[in-house]
Amino acid sequence: MTDVTKICVEGVTFFGLLNAIAVFVREPYLRINKWETTSKYKFISVIGETKWWAKDHCVTKVFAAFNNPSESLYILTDNVNIVETLDEIYCTQKFSSDVRFKVKTYLDSLLKYKTIIMSQIFLQIFTSTTPLSLYLQTKGLDIFNAFKIVKQSLSTLKMQSRDFEIILNATDQFVDWSNTSLITRGLGYNVFQKFLTNRIK
After folding, report:
1. Which residues of 111-138 are buried (b: 16+ CB within 10 A; e: fewer)?
2. CA–CA separation, 159 vs 155, rounded Å?
3. Domain boundaries defined on the chain
4. Model pLDDT, residue 30
5. What is the pLDDT of residues 122-181, one digit of tens each?
6. Nearest-angstrom CA–CA distance, 62 and 81
7. Reduced 3-state DSSP string for the chain
8. Is residue 4 pLDDT above 90, yes or no?
9. Residue 173, Cβ density class (10 Å: 0-12 exposed, 13-18 middle, ≥19 buried)
10. Out of the domains of life, which is the source (predicted)?
11. What confidence score (pLDDT) does residue 88 get?
C-alpha cells in the first residue's frame, strides 16, 4: 500500500497535501487557539513514510468514512474545521505574506474536485485493506483464515475497480454536503463540482 501511494502522481499529490497541512499547522507560531480551545477533535496527524495505515488514519480523519462525510474534519457544521482554520490564518494580518500565500495554496487544493475524488477512492480501498492488514498483524492468527481474507479482499478490490460510478456518487455527495456546510458557516468558499479544464499546450 505504501508503494501504491508513491507510484501514482495523483496519490503522491493528495497525501503530500494532507501531510503538508498537518506539518504546517503544527508549527509553534501558527497554532490557532480557536482549534485548541473549541474543538473536541485532535488535528490530523503527520503521515509517516513506513506505516501505511497512517495514511488511512489521516484520510479517514479528514474526510470521514466512505460515502458518509458527516464526521469529517474537512467541514464540521458544529465545530471548527480544517477549511475554517486555514481561512483564519489566511485572513489574519499578523502572519507574513509568505505564510498566508502558502495557506491560500492549501485551501485552493483542498477545494478541488480532484482532491475529493481521490479521498473517496482511497477510503473505499482502505475499507478492504485495513481490516486485512490489522488481522495479519495479530498474534497467533489462523493461516487458513488469513488466506481466505486475502482472497476475499482481492475479489472486493477487483469488483470495486469495475464500478467507478459508486466513487462518483460518493464524491458528489461529499461536494454537496461540503458546499451546504460552507454556506451555513458563512465561509466564502465553494468546493468545485467538476474537474478543472486544463489548457492544451
Report:
1. bebbbbbbbbbbbbbbbbbbebeeeeee
2. 6
3. 4-185
4. 62
5. 999 988 888 888 888 888 888 999 999 999 999 999 988 888 899 999 999 999 999 988
6. 9
7. CHHHHHHCHHHHHHHHHHHHHHHHHCCHHHCCHHHHHHCCCCCCCCCCCCCCHHHHHHHHHHHCECCEHHHCCCCCCCCCCHHHHHHHHHHCCCCCHHHHHHHHHHHHHHCCHHHHHHHHHHHHHHHHHHHHHHHHCCCCCCHHHHHHHHHHHHHHHHHHHCCCHHHHHHHHHHHHHHHHHHHHCCCCCCCCCCCCCCCCC
8. no
9. middle
10. Eukaryota
11. 86
- Residues 6 or more apart whose CB falls under 8 angstroms from that of 126 comprise 56, 59, 60
